[in-house]
Records
---
Amino acid sequence: MASGAPVIAERPSALALAAALATPVFRIGGEGPAPEPGPVPMFETLTSGSTGTPRRIRRSHASWIASFDVNAARFGIGPGARVAVLGRLVHSLSLYGAVEGMHLGAEVHLLDGLRPDRQRGALAERRVTQLYATPAQLRLLTDHSGPVCPDLRLILVGGSKLDAALRAAAGKLAPAARIVEFYGAAETSFITLADTTTPEGSVGAVYPGVELELRAGQVWVKSPYLFDGYAGDPGGAVLSEGWLSVCEMGRLDAGWLYLSGRAGRMVTVADQNVFPEEIEALLAALPGIRHGAVLARPDARRGMVLLAVAQGDPAQEAAIMAALRAALGPLKAPKALIWRADWPTLASGKTDLSALERETSWPI
């Protein structure tokens, strides 16, 4: 980081990141003027941008530090641990993992500059013990043959739900690792944790220190981990009297949270409310699907009509469409499946839905 400059590169060295953490305020990612210092140490980073342009968010150091001690006790992160992150630090999950490791005295490995096969080799060679990753990053790791990682004791997964096949592949990559999923957002940090004790389809139970309410089916949270607000253009989160919602819909059952999807993506098909995320979860679990997404367009008869877009094995199309119709019924199931050779992703590793919308030609 240049002397006195609170803006650091999107791929900083560990030394540059450590120097930034010692300043009153810094920013990683995004455009606009450098952030101004405030009464407490702050930083700016970006949302994932999966449904639009990534937004700059502003949060205090304390909002992340509050969860560091929780994770140190729960996951054994601290002196002697070797923590790795796979993505660019402009993505909040990777930035969080790196900063947490530094704060707790762990050895931190930034592997973003390596190809997935070399990342896998580095995890084994460097005897990494804790890994922060998205499902998309894990899929790239497990798609490549390479060494097993016997020293990995924890894989902490965020960004989207793990499907059963990917969980099994991650288990083969790291046989001794505990695989823990968390649900949250750049604006909220941790909301819930899920592991092998979590019921099928749930994103887990509340993370320590989090209060959670369902208001008309919308998830609201209150915790010491919330962001302070958007820096620049407003985003999708709503703040009200200390509570925050990223407009996700769901339900609680015996203390377990189940998600339906974002309110902004919900569509009405033949008078039924449909969340594309629910169909995408079904797609991800089917043989022949590497990546999948569901798009919608207006339809005079049904209100909206759905289309599935996928990367994978086109020879499985008939079986995939039959499975979707059996699970969803003829009205909610996508009417067609479009295959892509490539797959657009964001810095976070999530699907770039805006790019899919722009690039997909509708056959129906």
Note: Residues 1-5 have pLDDT under 50 and may be disordered.
---
Amino acid sequence: MRVFVTGATGFIGTKVVRELIDAGHQVLGLTRSDAGAQSLAAVGAEVHRGDIEDLESLRLGAGLADGIIHTAFNHDFSKFVANCDADRQAIEAMGSALHGSDRPFIVTSVTGMGGAGHGKPATEYHFNPDHPNPRKASELTCGALAQRGVNVSVVRLSQVHNCVKQGLISPLIELARQKGVSAYVDGGLNRWSAVHVSDAARLYVLALEKRGAGSRYHAVAEEGIPLRIIAEVIGRGLNVPVKSIAAADAPAHFGWLSAFVGSDMSASSALTQERLAWQPKGTGLIADLEEMRYA
């Protein structure tokens, strides 16, 4: 297939592009910069100029492709609600080019959308349209497109990591560096799921090839790692003390991260592994954190 990839030069998208090419697909990668165009051309991908706020460029790229993998998202959490709405518009724009066809469209969400609460791991079966996280807009838009006959599926991400970057844990590390303490909330027993970036990239390609309209897949290798353990590894890496922060004091200490650090974000990928024969093989989160160059 000729696959249009958004976020093609990003942390996850770069790996997705390589996986697609290695699997024999052609890639049309979205980029807005000369550096991005050069990096895409260097690995054998075609270049499509534009960005996720240029809806016409998205419609055009989607129209030129046999399938789409949408990994781009603006992770500036100071305007998170606006970014979630921008993602909704981007999904709608690309989906509009797919009406009347069976071309697969893989959209990115987060495992939290599958959370049923009460500390139970999120599952692929579950979606709460009333979830307080505005990221739900992405999956609601997918549902609307599916009702119009678009072959759309969702890959939900956990904390995607290697030994350089680790999802929400990367800003947690920077906060610990700034504050001189690595912290967790209360007992730190809330768990975060995780997946190596190479495994996540492979999952996107399998989801594309499966063409399972309406499916939800979880990019999860480790179901749940207690935040206290994560904080302790960060503390050792930075050589700073580790301590508990009371939930009432979390907003003052963690800032925007307080919306996440007290939450249980455990998730299962049992159904994903069964449906796609996907077996995570990458390094675990703690091992990657231990290998980081904290200096």
Note: The first helix runs from residue 11 to 22.
---
Amino acid sequence: MNRTLTVHSAVSLAPFLRASEYIDFSHPAVVSLAADLAAGEETKEAIVKSCFEYVRDAIAHTGDAGCGVSTIKASEVLEQKTGWCYAKSHLLAALLRANGIPAALCYQRLSCSEYTPGIYCLHGLNAVWLEAYGWYRIDARGNREGIDAQFTPPVERLAFALGENDYDIEGRFAEPLPEVIDALQTYKRYEEMIGHFPDIRQRDGSGD
């Protein structure tokens, strides 16, 4: 999906810089990786790109792999090297916040026909605050045939184009949605998650 972002102002960024239970960037492994990915980069945009490409390419998408556990915390995603799109967005948020870059969680409601025909589910991605542009969405779910998500500000290049009945969930979230956490905690393996992806109707964002 290609879209030129809109610049926002007077935004409280503090909630998008905090560590939490799921965005646990104080974990030693996350701290170490965040520093390694930022090393030698001269701009915040370069750090964002480095973190984004690591999560996109080095962390397997559980659905693409066809196996694996449902990781939740950023540190778990890093340890297991796998995660659904939601979990990968938790790790990317943690790496960016560890580098002092505001990062939010975002969601889309998309058709899940790839896994279960006829149902819809949430898709997790991120937004990062870039001083030159404002909030800019990035999607580190992992590329494969037909998916080519990139970091190309100010133009968004996300994993999926919205279909006829798909839509963006409004708002940027400092913490994962409860429905996402509930699904990841309940359906612990790939084969359990299929058919039980989190889903909601439109809801307002918080912390923005």
Note: The beta strands are 2-4, 60-61, 82-83, 103-111, 120-130, 134-138, 150-152, 155-157, 167-168.
